[in-house]
Write a structure and sequence with these properties.
It is a single chain. With 195 residues, the protein is of the alpha/beta class. It has a single domain, classed as Glycoside hydrolase/deacetylase (TIM Barrel, Alpha-Beta Barrel). It is 33% helix and 15% strand. The protein is built from six helices and seven strands. Strands 1, 2, 3, 4, 5, 6 and 7 form a seven-stranded mixed sheet that branches. A hairpin with a 4-residue loop joins strand 4 and strand 5. The protein starts with 10 loop residues before the first strand and ends in a 10-residue tail after the last strand.
Length: 195
């Protein structure tokens, strides 16, 4: 479990969770600007349009595990957690051709059973986050309300039905904050710890 990746490089990592909103403008914007980000997918959110996420994958985005149905895992029996995590591993492997190595528990909620289940499903890393992005603001975990090298930024596949803005608005917010503070976005996969 980690919320920051140790690095001296002035980079941050954008991650996008679940898959409810499938905004074509977000795909176009990230492709045209070559914005690296990592997706954590929940099957109940993405199964109505796997093609959207195939386009994302073909542009170089890593597709990872966020469970089958976005259940709150902490306190759930090991077998049920394993079903949620391994089941999503199978879906991603079968639909997108690769088994993820990254897993993010829904709501960031986990326990020992979660970590044991994830490992048994082939997961090697469980990144959380320390900053969350919305279309009109950022929410900070650190008291200094600032970015730090290696910080992981969380946002969600959400649009105007859920938030006061679109996915491109959220991306613009992240880019504005990163640029103002002298940071670049980097691929999370390129900086993962190797232990």
């Amino acid at each position: 479990m980690f919320t920051t990746i140790p690095t001296k490089d002035k980079v941050i990592f954008l991650t996008v969770d679940d898959g409810y909103e499938k905004d074509p403008d977000f795909l176009r914007m990230t492709r045209e600007l070559r914005i690296p980000y990592t997706a954590f997918l929940t099957d109940s959110a993405v199964k109505d349009d796997y093609a959207y996420f195939r386009r994302m994958q073909s542009a170089g985005t890593s597709l990872n595990n966020h469970t089958l149905s976005h259940r709150y895992l902490r306190g759930m029996a090991h077998d049920r957690q394993r079903h949620e995590i391994c089941g999503q591993q199978d879906v991603i492997h079968n639909v997108f051709g690769t088994a993820p190595k990254l897993f993010r528990p829904p709501y960031g909620a986990y326990d020992g059973n979660t970590l044991r289940a994830a490992k048994s499903c082939g997961i090697t890393h469980v990144p959380l986050w320390n900053t969350e992005a919305f279309p009109d603001h950022m929410e900070w975990r650190d008291a200094d309300r600032d970015l730090h090298p290696g910080d992981i930024i969380l946002t969600h596949f959400r649009g105007p039905r859920h938030w006061k803005g679109s996915m491109p608005d959220t991306l613009r917010q992240v880019l504005r904050v990163a640029t103002d503070r002298g940071y670049a976005l980097a691929r999370l996969d390129d900086y993962l710890p190797t232990s």
